[in-house]
């Protein structure tokens, strides 16, 4: 290596060649070959002229051939935009969405939540589609309505209900309350504006970024079976299916990968559809977490972005949820707490109690299980990424319609006509599942009568005899379709959407389809496409929890035994048939290139929302302390890899500022020049950020920060910083101001 000033550079240069992102500077007799393409780069390698020219020519030729081959193979170019944006939201004192547990409220961050966006188009002026995966329990109707409204203000009719698909990964460890329907607002004390706003704004920002970075590229696919990360949690229901012998397994092990590559052969992103509940973290967790799918994205992005800080790399990896209604990541299965015996097969109870029957993951605890199930999906995606060779070609298109699901006429396969019903939840809904059992005296597979609950439900709404008949054999616990005080309890107007990218058809399924419900839907849509003239390889995948949440969709046979999934199938026994019928209509329209009707508009209840969530009142610190002061410092003795550093600070409330796109903590390492380099943030899986209320009356709290030192951590001097905002109130109103604190320096050996 020799150093070269730019002055010298210009003096000795007799010629410059730009090739393959490198600058080759020809001098007298020798060649200076720069690693970077900018003339200001100061690192040069001195090589002989012939040697370098040969090397470079070979490399260029090789690259050119690869690119040409890729282009010939695809024969088709897409425009691809990619981005991710922070949607973590309120990290303290907000109920988590998923387990419907009042006690499970946020108290910090394990790792941040993101929305990840891919925009795909044939040309910049032609039709485009937007696939957004959110680290949330689901997408909700009000999210979609507000996102599209905001996009239309910016882009006119470029982004619409039709071509924007929002789907949730189904993590049960994120802040809830982003609803406009009552049922899911019970445990979150009503609507939570903070939760909704951060998601809507995050999605809009991420679409803006992806919109602005669209570039030419190609799309490749691959698929395979990941057999090690999921089990059926309702085998008794699954076994009722008449077509169960058509399939070797009671869960669908297929992972389908879409690989997005730029025309310079730069990997841009990956989308891995795989059905498994994001319930590795159980209902005792209070740290925000993307669960196993968020973990898989984190690992994938770390790997592809060469360790760039989370959210700062260019490669984006998503793991959308698929037909996982009855699919658990808790592969050790359910057993009775105390005795360790198997639970009752049909009802998932132990001595009649559902709360004693709990499923466990493969790890030593829930964090370890999250890691294992996340790693499995990550490693499998890498395998598929390595062998993805089928390329997609053909049009980008989409169809979307709204359907009134409360009174839809359904043509059954045997020619009979049936009807869907206004929504209602069955009694086994309250039993929960073995991933998160209910705490009341309910059991799954309940079709009997219960006087107490019949009485309770009477306060809400007694179902009419027609409603009871319509839902039979479901015993109705909550007749949600019979109340609209203060507004609707569950959706009536439901979106159905298909997004097409070449030979790939993505079905946006609201809610959670069980394994068999998903298989039947996929097979039926495939057949419809073929029957209507679509030839060649057709890939049909389900992006579940999309656009709106309508709980579960079980098959008729599963419905009839009323385990949790059947009891949570809200439009009655023919819910699945109704969805298959409506998806098929869209498939026909796509195949024939004709439009579909938009259907009835869903309501927007945003202005009527009731919220009982209390705002942050004020923050305080103990006498003679300030915000950011150390409460408990890092131990001075230093640390070995695989140990954990603990520090805590006097702190403000995390809801004063969500630190969106920023962080509440940094693990920093001292560089040789004395400056500090940030190695981890609160978005890293290696750190934990916990908020602890120490005095309600005085508004005092502390934060605790933990860093698990990885086995390969570099030796050196480290420190941990905390950033926050505190709220003070005086005569003139309230002020929210930033503060920070820092731990002592410590060594890692
Ligand atoms: C890619 O790898 C998966 C998983 O090992 C395998 O199932 C699949 O057949 C492979 N596909 C190709 C085209 O090699
Ligand atoms: C399956 O996962 C377990 C951990 O859960 C692991 O020990 C085992 O090696 C895995 N098996 C395969 C075939 O991947
Ligand atoms: C949740 O996981 C922890 C281990 O991390 C375990 O001790 C606890 O029993 C589990 N609780 C439930 C309700 O699953």
Write up what this structure looks like.
- With 749 residues, this protein is of the alpha+beta class.
- It folds into three domains: 2-74, no CATH class; 79-327 and 376-408 and 476-549 and 585-608, no CATH class; 630-748, Neutral/alkaline non-lysosomal ceramidase, C-terminal domain (Immunoglobulin-like, Sandwich), CATH 2.60.40.
- 23% of the residues lie in helices and 30% in strands.
- The protein contains 13 helices and 41 strands.
- Strands 6, 9, 10, 11, 12, 14, 15, 16 and 20 form a nine-stranded mixed beta sheet that branches. Strands 7-8-37-38-34-33 form a six-stranded antiparallel beta sheet, with no helix packed on it. The protein has a five-stranded antiparallel beta sheet with strand order 1-5-4-3-2.
- Strand 9 (114-121) and strand 10 (128-134) form a beta hairpin.
- Helix 6 packs across helix 7 (366-387) and helix 10 packs parallel to helix 13.
- The longest helix has 26 residues, at 49-74.
- The protein is globular, with a radius of gyration of 28 Å.
- It starts with a strand and ends with a strand.
- Mean pLDDT is 89; it is low at 1-47 and 69-75.
- It binds 2-acetamido-2-deoxy-beta-D-glucopyranose (3 copies).
């Amino acid at each position: 290596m020799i150093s070269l000033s730019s002055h010298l550079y210009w003096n000795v240069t007799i010629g410059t060649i730009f090739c393959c992102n490198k600058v080759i500077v020809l001098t007298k007799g020798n060649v200076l070959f720069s690693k970077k393409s900018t003339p200001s780069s100061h690192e040069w390698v001195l090589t002989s002229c012939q040697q370098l020219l040969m090397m470079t020519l070979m490399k260029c030729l090789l690259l050119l051939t690869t690119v040409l081959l890729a282009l010939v193979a695809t024969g088709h170019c897409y425009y691809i935009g990619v981005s991710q944006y922070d949607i973590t939201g309120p990290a303290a004192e907000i109920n988590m969405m998923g387990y419907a547990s009042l006690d499970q409220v946020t108290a910090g961050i394990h790792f941040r939540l993101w929305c990840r966006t891919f925009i795909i188009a044939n040309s910049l002026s032609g039709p485009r589609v937007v696939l957004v995966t959110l680290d949330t329990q689901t997408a909700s109707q009000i999210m979609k309505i507000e996102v599209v409204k905001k996009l239309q203000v910016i882009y006119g009719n470029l982004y619409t209900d039709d071509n924007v698909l929002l789907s949730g990964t189904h993590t049960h460890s994120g802040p809830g309350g982003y609803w406009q329907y009552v049922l899911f607002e019970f445990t979150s004390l009503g609507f939570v504006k903070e939760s909704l706003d951060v998601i809507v704004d995050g999605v809009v920002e991420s679409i803006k970024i992806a919109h602005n970075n669209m570039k030419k590229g190609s799309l490749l696919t691959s698929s395979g079976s990941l057999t090690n990360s999921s089990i059926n949690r309702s085998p008794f229901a699954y076994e009722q299916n008449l077509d169960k012998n058509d399939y070797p397994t009671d869960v669908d092990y297929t992972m389908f990968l879409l690989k997005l590559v730029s025309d310079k052969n730069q990997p841009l992103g990956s989308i891995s559809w795989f059905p498994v509940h994001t319930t590795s973290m159980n209902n005792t967790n209070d740290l925000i977490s993307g669960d196993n799918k968020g973990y898989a994205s984190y690992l994938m992005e770390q790997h592809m972005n060469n360790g760039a800080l989370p959210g700062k790399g260019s490669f984006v990896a998503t793991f959308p949820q698929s037909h996982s209604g009855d699919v658990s990541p808790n592969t050790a299965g359910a057993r009775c707490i105390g005795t360790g015996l198997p639970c009752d097969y049909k009802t998932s109870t132990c001595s009649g109690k559902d709360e004693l029957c709990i499923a466990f993951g493969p790890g030593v605890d829930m964090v370890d299980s999250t890691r294992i199930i996340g790693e499995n999906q990550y490693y499998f995606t890498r395998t598929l990424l390595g062998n993805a060779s089928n390329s997609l070609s053909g049009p980008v298109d989409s169809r979307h319609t709204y359907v009134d699901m409360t009174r839809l006429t359904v043509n059954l396969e045997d020619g009979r006509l049936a009807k869907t019903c206004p929504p209602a939840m069955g009694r086994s809904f309250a039993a929960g599942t073995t991933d998160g059992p209910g705490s009341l005296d309910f059991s799954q597979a309940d079709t009997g009568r219960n006087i107490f609950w019949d009485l309770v439900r009477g306060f809400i709404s007694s179902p009419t005899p027609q409603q009871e008949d319509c839902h039979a054999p479901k015993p109705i616990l909550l007749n949600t379709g019979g109340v609209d005080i203060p507004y609707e309890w569950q959706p009536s107007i439901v979106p159905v959407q298909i997004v097409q990218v070449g030979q790939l058809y993505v079905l946006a399924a609201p809610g959670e389809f069980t394994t068999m419900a998903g298989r039947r839907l996929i097979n039926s849509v495939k057949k419809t496409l073929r029957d209507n003239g679509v030839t060649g390889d057709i890939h049909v995948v389900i992006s579940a929890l999309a656009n709106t949440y309508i709980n579960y969709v079980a098959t008729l046979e599963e419905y009839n035994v009323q385990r949790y999934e059947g009891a949570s199938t809200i439009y009655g026994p023919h819910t699945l048939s109704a969805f298959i019928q409506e998806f098929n209509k869209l498939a026909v329209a796509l195949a024939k290139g004709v439009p579909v009707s938009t259907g009835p508009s869903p309501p927007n209840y945003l202005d009527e929302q009731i919220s009982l969530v209390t705002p942050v009142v004020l923050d305080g610190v103990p006498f003679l302390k300030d915000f950011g002061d150390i409460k408990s410092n890092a131990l001075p003795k230093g640390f070995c890899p695989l140990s954990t550093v603990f520090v805590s600070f006097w702190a403000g409330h995390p809801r004063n500022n969500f630190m969106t796109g920023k962080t509440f903590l940094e693990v920093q390492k001292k560089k040789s020049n004395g400056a500090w380099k940030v190695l981890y943030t609160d978005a890293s899986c290696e750190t934990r950020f916990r908020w602890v209320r120490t005095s309600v009356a005085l508004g005092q709290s502390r934060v605790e920060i933990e860093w698990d030192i990885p086995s390969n951590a570099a030796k050196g001097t480290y420190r941990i910083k905390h950033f926050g905002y505190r709220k003070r109130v005086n005569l003139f109103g309230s002020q929210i101001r930033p503060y920070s604190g820092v731990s002592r320096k410590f060594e890692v050996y």
